[in-house]
Amino acid sequence: MKSRFLLAGAAVALLAAPFAGGQVLAQAGAAASSVAKAAIGAWGVDLSGQDTAVKPGDDFYLYAGGKWAAATAIPEDRASVGAFSDLRERTQDQSKALITDAPAGSKYGALYASYMDEAQVEKVGLAPLMADLSKLKAVRTKSQFARLMGDTNGKFGSAVIDFGVGPDTANPNINILYVGQAGLGLPDRKYYLDDSLKKQRDAYRAYIERTMKTLGHADPAGAANTIINFETNLAIKSWDADARRDIDKVNNPMSTAELARYAPGIDWAAFWQGARIPAQKRIIVGENTAVRGIAMIFDETPLETLKLWEAFHIASQASPFLGKTMVDSQFEYTRQLSGVTQMRPRWKRALGMVDGSLGELVGQDYVARFFPASSKAKMDGLVGNLKMAMAGRIRANDWMAEATKSAALDKLARMDVMVGYPNKWRDYSGLKINPGDLYGNAKRAGAFNAAYNMSFLGKPVDRKLWGMNPQTVNAYNGGLENKIVFPAGILQAPFFDPNADDAANYGAIGAVIGHEISHGFDDQGRKIDASGAVRDWWTPEDSKRFEEQAAIFGAQYAKYEAAPGFFVNPKLTMGENIADLAGVSVALDAYHASLGGKPAPVIGGLTGDQRFFLAFAQVWRTKMRDDALRNQVTTDPHSPAVFRTYGPLRNVDGWYAAFNVQPGDKLYIAPEKRARIW
Q1: Which domain, by its residues, includes 624?
Q2: Which of 108, 218, 255, 629 has the fewest CB atoms within 10 Å, i.e. the most exposed one?
Q3: Residues 315 and 396 placed together within one structural domain of the fold
Q4: What pLDDT, on the 0 to 100 scale, is given for residue 272?
Q5: Whole-angstrom distance, CA of residue 211 vs CA of residue 183
């Protein structure tokens, strides 16, 4: 578990991106027009997907991609289809080529082989799972159970308390321990409490029952009810997702001794002993009242109930590495969360395991084959140009005091940028992989990576470490580390194409870069200073103005209905929404600056700004199943793609001018009512 502030700081996942550059791309654009061809369309955007019968000001999502949406079906094994998911499929194919070509004896080749050997997995059966469950059966006291929970970190099993390592909120140069709520099997507390999610809750109950039956429990239905009731009690005490991303609420420092006094009910000494963590003078307790309430529930819950709950979670987490019966049972449940009708092919699931277990080992070979040095150089230039554009917007901000501007510019200047891959690769030599032992490989890899993460506790923060693998189609802002990271995986068309028109690259990867930069200045990032410490560096007047504009922006998103009865939660999505708005605004400024005072060329009858915004929309082409949308709106800080397409643009003056959006158009907002944040 990373610091919650690092998590809140960003992940593209459904975006979050880096900076785009000017002079370098200008050269790339010139080359595109005279020599090389863009990967998509004539200059970087698939215009055949447009529905020009729709007015841009009525629905820019459909105007930019309506024909694509009408003609595109979601594959049966996927919850969505679109630019992000399609590129992930491409990178999977690239990774598969690497892994299946791996020489005999290679670690990631052996791990992949162990996953693909279904016959061996079926032959082994449930024997390794039963061996793990025997340790649970031997537990006789709650202190022993607390010790076992602490020991589940990196192993099959669960705990009612989560913990991990991240930079100290007061001294971000040192890594300390973070503690928070845990224990739920469903994606969020609302899945236990909202009637609108009863279908998913019932599917989970049925899954628990099937699992307990497979484990030989005498009353699997009764066990399922007991487990669901226990988790429901935990859910009642747990915090909502929007509260969990509020730095002011989750920044609760104390010592491990103080935590034990604050939240009695768990034998904390036994818990930390199981986790092999000594007493700490300073930790950050995230959802503090939830942790206290969960400790109370733990104290009141019979040991046999706790052991039932743990047995299920051990089996559930082990299921992907067991035989077909367990795999199919888990899919029958998870498909109710995503809406998919077909399980992913086994080779894709195998790649997922390899990526999660040996990510940088694969990444080292991935970038050597698929990420040219020229792309890294061009991205470095793009990011630099976008940082300059952001600095210009800060200086020109008419509602911010000079002292606040100066602090913001300092933070921007000190924001580290990482492109493509880390400078130093992880060492996996200590991880043993056996091509005939999938279950054992999963256990050893989990323990190895958990130990690696915990090894940083109490040590200086290494800001050059990466939190994503190079082959990942995503990007992130490091929050307390004040850095932005753009893996090689996302630096491909339609996000980045060195042969595309400048406007297309600025509208796509430029907006992604701007998005990630802007996370340092969103509703939570603005509470972190240039060093990475949580500190209020704003004047009271500036804070008030920021909150006023954020409220205007949030009110717009609160009206967006993603699925019947499921509206966007502006409190949960505020950080990502602000980063979307600031990101596209910064990228547009950077594109204009790259023109060097000259007018943009008209290509195919489209102006430079029109091409910029169409490229931005192409990135957000997405179709998603309703169940997946419900899950996203409930749990994800990113708004659904359709709203990420036009939600920010409704507040960008340049978009109105580019497409002649007028009063009376459905997306029109009067200039004085548009949100002006960055």
Answers
A1: 4-96+349-424+464-673
A2: 218
A3: no
A4: 98
A5: 18
